[in-house]
Each structure stands twice: as C-alpha cells, then as structure tokens.
C-alpha cells in the first residue's frame, strides 16, 4: 500500500469511530472519595507512624550500601563502617514517611524527632531498642504506655484486663490526651459501659462478659429480644400485628401518596416520592422508559417518551455530522480510484459497508437514517 493509500486507510479508521461517538456521548463520572481529604492523625499516632517508618529504614539499609566489593574482607570492613555512619542515617531519613496518606504528618513528626534520633544514633545504639518507647513516650512525650492516659501517663481506672467492662476504651489510652473515663462502644452506656443503651437489649451475660445487641429496626423504645415480635412498641411506618409483631406498612399501596408527576418508592418504615422523568406525565419508575403516559410535547417511541421537537433537532445535528463523514469518505475514494483501481475498489467496498453499518447502527438506536435525507443529493456528488 502506498503512503497516500495508508493515510487514507488511517482516515477511514478514524472516521469509523467518529459517528459512533456522536451517537452515544456521556459525561464523565467523578469518584467523590478521591476529592475528600484524609483525616488527620493524633500526635501519638503520627509518632508511631514515624517510628515504624524509621524501623523500615533500618531494615532497608541493614545490608549496607557497598555490596559486591572486590574482596570479602573489604566488603566486610565497608559494611561495618557504614552501619554506624552518618551516611546510613541520611539514607534512612531520605526514605522516611514516603508511604501512606498521612505522610505530611509523619514528616512533621520526623522533623521534631530529629534531634533525639541523632542523639540516639551518636551513642552507637542497639538497633533492637524499643524506639517507640524511647522516642514517642520518653523523649517526644506524645504517647503513654498501654492503658495509661493524659499528661502524666496516669493508669486507666479499673481492671486493665477488662477496661470499661470490655465494651469500651479508656479516653486517651496510650496517648498524652484524654481524661481516662470510658468511651463506650455502640450500644453500651454507663460509667463502666455496663448497661445497654435504649434500642439495645442484653443478649448475653456471664461473670466476665456482657453483650448488648440492637433491637429490630421496627421497634420503638426498646425490646426484650431481637425480633420484630419483641418490641416494646412499633416505630412510625410499622403496624402492630398480633402474630407477626411490627410489620412495615407499604405506603405505596395508597395510590394517592404521591402527586401526579411522581412515583412512590416503599422502603422499610417509610417511603419516598420521586419526580418522574420530564418526558412523563405519570410514571411507575425513574427514566423516560417508565412513563405510564407521556408528558405534553412528548410521544411514545417504543419504550420511550421522546420530545417531538427536540428529537428532530438533535437527530438533524447528528445526521449532518454523519453525512459530512460520508462525503469525506466518498471524496477519499474518488481521489484513490483513478490511481489504483484495485485499491480504489477495495476502499470503495469498505466505504459502502461502513456507511451501511453506521446507518444501521443509528437506525436501531432511534436516529433517523438515510431515508430521511431530503436536502442532500448524493447522486450529484458523483456527477461533479
Ligand atoms: C472526660 O472527657 C469527656 C470527653 O472529652 C467529657 O465528656 C467528660 O465530661 C470528661 N469527664 C471528666 C470527669 O472530666
């Protein structure tokens, strides 16, 4: 194939993709999770992150930088001098706090801890030192030992094996913050987290453990046990049945729950009225294919209600784009045909099948095809 043939061939491929894109354009969907920022850490957690990262750095550099020295004795010597060198500390610090979403806070902590780390490094330390204790608890004073809290690392009150009855934690545990009172897990209440919250019932209890479990969603004001039959009373949106307990009311059974341009969606304990698609007068769901009756100015085409005017406008635009493409293709064929009959007729056949394919695609997708071509005389093109 000659270079002009090749470029025409490429043009053809590009042109095949264009009308398909015109028939089906959708806006991009943005993931909202990407936009929200990471929650900030407490100082003690940031310190722990820094220490963990530093330990990884120690491991990363433990084999030294000068692997593969000329002789074994030489390598051994270099390794020893690197092990305690300023250079290794720099290598560690350069790679620190690189991972994770809290790297900014980690770096900040690393800066603050720098003098303590340098002092520790200078005294030829044992690398198995508990750096967390040394840095975060003793030197930086941002953490406390386990089950201690507050400025002075006061022990949490109560039995350290079973703090807050095993159903909560001591406020500030392990940090220099908090006041040591119990922060109960969901469902528990009381100074020692030894009572069930309203909406929960005692589902288990022995000498060392108690468990509270949530009442059934249909319950109001508490329950004896977990089923809908055990409610003290039923929540709004539920009706009491002497056999079944609290049962969901299907509000949508009442056809007058929502207004004319809405449809009703039942949910457990409630319902929602949602607006019909603008193409519907009445509907039984969302979208232009769920109309019971089309809105004024729209008419039914297959499953859909389509705007009478808008439909013509849009399809006219699309149709024009498509026909421009065909004209381009035909001109390309016209250029090629006199130069090489075999290539020309091959491209001609491709153009023809492409046009048929695109027309068919657009026809089954509801756009008007060649049959509606009024102001465009293809035959004229061939004569000129
Ligand atoms: C302890 O702190 C919590 C939460 O900050 C607070 O609600 C509570 O009143 C405090 N308790 C005491 C005894 O200071």
Automatic annotation (TrEMBL):
KW Amino-acid biosynthesis (keyword) present: no
Pfam families named in the record: DUF3456, EGF_laminin
Entry keywords, A to Z: Calcium, Disulfide bond, EGF-like domain, Signal
Residues making up the signal peptide according to the UniProt record: 1-23
MF terms in GO: calcium ion binding
Gene3D superfamilies, per the entry: Hormone Receptor, Insulin-like Growth Factor Receptor 1, Chain A, domain 2
A GO biological process held by the record: system development
CDD domains according to UniProt: EGF_CA, FU
SS bonds (residue pairs): 184-193
Sequence ranges assigned to domain EGF-like in this UniProt record: 152-194
Family per record: Belongs to the CRELD family.
Name of the protein in its database record: EGF-like domain-containing protein
Organism: Helicoverpa armigera (Cotton bollworm)
